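pinning this so it doesn't scroll away 📌
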Amino acid sequence: MRGRSLMIALALAAWPLASYAACEGVAPEQKLQNTFARDIGRDLDRIREDGWIEVAMYEDFAPWSWEDGGKPRGIDVEIAQLIAQELGVTARIRMVTPGETLDADLLNYVYRGAVVGGHVSDLMLHAPYDVAYACRFDQVVFTGQYAVDRLAIAYKPADYPDKGPTPPVFRYDPVGVENDSISDFFLTSVAHGATADKVHRYPSTQAAMKGLEAGEVMAVMGPRAEIDAALQPDEAVHEPPLLGLARNSWTLGAALSMQHRPLAYAVDDAIAAGLEDGRIATIFKSYGADFRPPER
């Protein structure tokens, strides 16, 4: 399964950082026609009238969102509940399977719905917030920036007593990564492929961290929040410079249909309130994840 961090980072890396003329030269998308109302979510008034909001997020994605004993858990789950509380409704969590690209996920869960039996949710979390990338989607509103995630390296100080390892070290020392993630692509390209035989691929960053604990690898590279959530007492994490990588961090937010801008404003206000009073920072702390607030 393609790593979610790869989907986000590669999508953003393909576009320049936002400028004053961010959408200059970008042709607008063709507007969708003959689309049933049920395929474009519900407006804010309808959500409040019904008393609930459906929020889509990725499945099997600890510490962000996963099911534990049939109940949804995770940072994104609790942020969805925070948003719902601010709107005066309850949150209905929809766990979705990531597609091959972030573009496909936005289409399937935000502004059109899957071709067969699909529907869009009122809101999707863990969407990247980047003006240049957003220019491609005049069907989507990107809002509610709530955190910045970034790449990091986990290791055991006993193995690296002087300082934490950096990518060139992995020409000699085994390192774990999530298969087909941005860490995988980056490390296999370091030193023109000289690290390729030292990169051990796992189904997830969480599985790679278990490999570090078991001594199968000497380090793990992956998104900071996923590493933090699995970090053991005898392990440490750092964020060294990653020369040659276009993006090593990305801002997370919410995405929803452009037809429901009043809902977008309400969601952004809810996130702003959670950032200001510390509730979002507390959510991250409860999952053992380092919190970096976004620039808003």
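📌 and the second one:
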Amino acid sequence: MTAENSGIERIESRTAQIGGGISVDRVLPVRQRRRIGAWCFLDHAGPARFEPGQGMLVEAHPHIGLQTFTWLIEGEALHRDSLGNEQVLRPGQVNLMTAGIGISHTEESLADQRVLHAAQLWIALPPGKQEIPPAFDHYPDLPRWSEGGVDFTLLAGSHVGRTAPTRVHTPLVGMDLQSPADASVRLALEPGFEHGLLVLEGAAQVDGQRFATNELAYLPKGRTELALSTEAGSRLLLIGGEPPTDDITIWWNFVGSKSAIAQAQRDWEAGSARFGSVRGYENRRLVAPPVPW
């Protein structure tokens, strides 16, 4: 990460692997910046190409203290969880799973698919909400509009009078921006939020600074707008929220205090009913690594 004179920070992704051998570009967390608002994890998957039957496969694994937020751009994926939900996610849709006290789930490409392009994010639940009952919601219809040659989809929170239906527990925003042709807009920002703008495809100029694919522009709170220019065929993801003041740990698939995470690790390894089981994956569970503290 490097600092720019305008106060914009550049965060570069690192490569990671998810189930099925799919490579992702991991943007959050990084050592210099663990969260942007309540957003505490961001993977950009793809566009990955593969033969039918060889796509993403993430076997049963647990979560606590967070919401998983999946925005699908291309391909189709199947979500299953320990609450009994089975939901196919298609392009332009969001799956939002609330872990709370504990849940387990699987994610996989459909057997006939040849491509996966998605953003996978986590939202840290705030104090008082970290142990709420688990839940799952699917959102096929989201607010969409066009302005200045940019097509907008509001994924979470509110923006200039529009509000997404996604059920979150802290003030934040998530938005997809796509420009079929070269475009320039002035993008309104909530001054009480810090923001991150990730280039998913193509390239963009953020206040005159060029950001390439899988680079994120971090903007501290206090801004009311930014000047944005995008190249033809570009796609960006905007996330933001109130700067966090609570102290949490992000470890493996868990978010919370160190003691809560250690207990969750023991419960998962013991096969506790806390996390239930995913039908068809009772004996196909990821192994939790030892807690390092």
